[in-house]
Backbone:
């Protein structure tokens, strides 16, 4: 049984498909969790469901100043942050030859830059308290690539590289930094894909089904737990065997 | 000045576990006192807390010795 009692977690993208499952998992393991996203309605619903150990903070991660105040508020509400889950992410697909600067920059900004800024804002407190768990949600696409997603794959691969460097810098302070790379998970992010495309993806998935948010969330609480203190700089792939590394 | 020196010395002694007499104004955190680069960040955070000041990253990067820390702290505390 994973025990996160007394642990304080900040989770981005909590209003999304994977985020909600992660929030439920962390709360079930006993953590106090600050949930953030832009969609207030979704977050309020989730908070109602999860009860007193869940707080919400509305913040748009595209604005640097918001990130600073978000982390400050979360630290005040929780009394420090032990666990940071960088889960917010977007796609803006286009073939490379047509990809606009805006599509490129938006995806890099939300996926990669916000992960850097969130982590930078949180890690000082972790260094001071000599404990921390940083968990970054990347993607199979960051490792395998995907036509039409050069911006997304660049952002996710970059997070993996960043995590390895940071893990080396802060390991001596009992802070671990890891990534989880989901494959195809049924959420809003993938809801727009055509049935034909889904069928095609399914062919490459060894366990013959699409993934659910709950397939991902268990790994988050495991990496957040004390049982995972010897795992750092790693990427856990959760993709039904779609890619084997 | 001597007040700042004393407080800085105490922080460095506590944080790096070195003897007080080694913490002279000219002592370099990394070369003389055995700090690693993360220790220097932590020292700067401890100075910020002790003296109630903010040390921006670019200034922090130039604080390499006990003397550097003292002169920076005294310059903003004025
Ligand atoms: N679904 C998959 O197949 C899959 C596969 C691999 C990796 N992933 C990764 O898993 C993570 C979660 O994705 P998901 O599938 O759960 O997608 P989702 O349901 O679309 O959720 C995305 C989350 O990101 C948040 N977000 C987006 N832009 C934001 C902004 N500017 N400021 C603050 N929050 C923002 C959204 O919050 P608001 O709507 O409240 O702003 C939402 O909570 C992402 O990093 C994604 O890349 C997903």
Residues:
């Amino acid at each position: 049984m994973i025990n996160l009692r007394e642990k304080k977690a900040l989770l981005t993208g909590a209003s999304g498909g994977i985020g909600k499952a992660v929030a439920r998992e962390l709360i079930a393991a006993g953590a106090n969790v600050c949930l953030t996203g832009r969609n207030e309605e979704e977050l309020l619903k989730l908070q109602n469901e999860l009860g007193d150990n869940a707080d919400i903070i509305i913040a748009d991660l595209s604005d640097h100043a918001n990130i600073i105040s978000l982390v400050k508020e979360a630290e005040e509400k929780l009394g420090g942050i032990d666990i940071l889950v960088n889960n917010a992410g977007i796609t803006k697909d286009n073939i490379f030859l047509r990809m606009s600067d805006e599509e490129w920059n938006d995806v890099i900004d939300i996926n990669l830059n916000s992960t850097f800024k969130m982590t930078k804002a949180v890690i000082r407190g972790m260094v001071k308290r000599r404990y921390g768990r940083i968990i970054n949600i990347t993607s199979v696409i960051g490792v395998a690539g995907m036509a039409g997603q050069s911006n997304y794959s660049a952002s996710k691969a970059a997070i993996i590289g960043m995590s390895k460097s940071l893990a080396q810098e802060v390991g001596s302070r009992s802070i671990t930094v890891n990534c989880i790379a989901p494959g195809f998970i049924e959420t809003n992010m993938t809801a727009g894909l055509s049935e034909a495309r889904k069928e095609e993806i399914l062919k490459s998935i060894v366990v013959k089904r699409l993934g659910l948010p709950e397939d991902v969330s268990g790994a988050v609480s495991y990496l957040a737990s004390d049982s995972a203190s010897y795992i750092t700089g790693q990427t856990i792939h959760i993709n039904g065997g779609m890619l084997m590394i | 000045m001597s007040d700042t020196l004393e407080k800085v010395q105490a922080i460095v002694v506590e944080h790096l576990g070195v003897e007080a007499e080694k913490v002279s104004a000219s002592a370099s955190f990394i070369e003389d006192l055995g700090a690693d680069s993360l220790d220097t960040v932590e020292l700067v955070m401890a100075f910020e807390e002790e003296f109630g000041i903010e040390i921006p990253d670019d200034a922090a990067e130039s604080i390499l010795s006990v003397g550097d820390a003292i002169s920076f702290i005294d310059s903003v505390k004025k």
In short: Chain B has a mean pLDDT of 93.
